[in-house]
């Protein structure tokens, strides 16, 4: 019985497919990094404004609301809890950016 061409890929074709997919992952990683960098720049600006206003650097209610909003936006394939952990790590790093003298 002959094998169907759409079910079996030659190893070279599979290797090329893997290479293409990995390049797409690399591009996605770069997009994520650039988005985090843009977010960090905004965090620094917010920190300066908060200092001018005499406001607390950390707003726990805002963080809770932001994390809930992000969780509501999750469409997959990652579980909501994993995305929340990633954003919690971003929030912690953002707090460090807002620390007095950190990057001003």
What do you see in this structure?
The protein has 104 residues and is mainly alpha-helical. It has a single domain (11-98), classed as Chorismate mutase (Chorismate Mutase Domain, subunit A), CATH 1.20.59.10. 73% of the residues lie in helices and 0% in strands. The chain has three helices and no strands. 2% of the residues are buried. The model has no long low-confidence stretch (mean pLDDT 88).
Topology:
Layout: H1 11-53, H2 60-73, H3 80-98
Helix pairs in contact: 1-3, 2-3
List keywords for this structure.
Chorismate Mutase Domain, subunit A; 104 residues; mainly alpha
CATH superfamily: Chorismate mutase
- Distance N to C terminus: 71 Å
Instruction: List the total number of helices.
Output: 3
Write down the secondary-structure element order: HHH
The CATH class name reads Mainly Alpha
What level of helicity do the residues show?
A: over 70%
Q: Give the biggest beta sheet.
A: none
Average pLDDT across residues? Answer: 88
Mind telling me the C-alpha Rg? 21 Å
CATH topology: Chorismate Mutase Domain, subunit A
Q: Please tell me what the overall shape is.
A: elongated
> Which runs of at least 5 residues are low in confidence (pLDDT < 50)?
none
């Amino acid at each position: 019985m002959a094998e169907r061409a759409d079910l079996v890929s030659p190893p070279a074709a599979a290797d090329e497919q893997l290479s293409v997919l990995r390049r797409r992952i690399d591009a996605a990683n770069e997009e994520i990094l650039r988005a985090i960098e843009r977010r960090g720049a905004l965090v620094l600006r917010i920190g300066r404004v908060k200092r001018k206003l005499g406001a607390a650097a950390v707003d726990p209610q805002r963080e809770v609301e932001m994390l809930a909003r992000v969780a509501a936006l999750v469409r997959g394939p990652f579980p909501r809890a994993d995305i929340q952990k990633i954003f919690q790590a971003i929030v912690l790093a953002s707090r460090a950016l807002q620390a007095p003298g950190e990057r001003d």
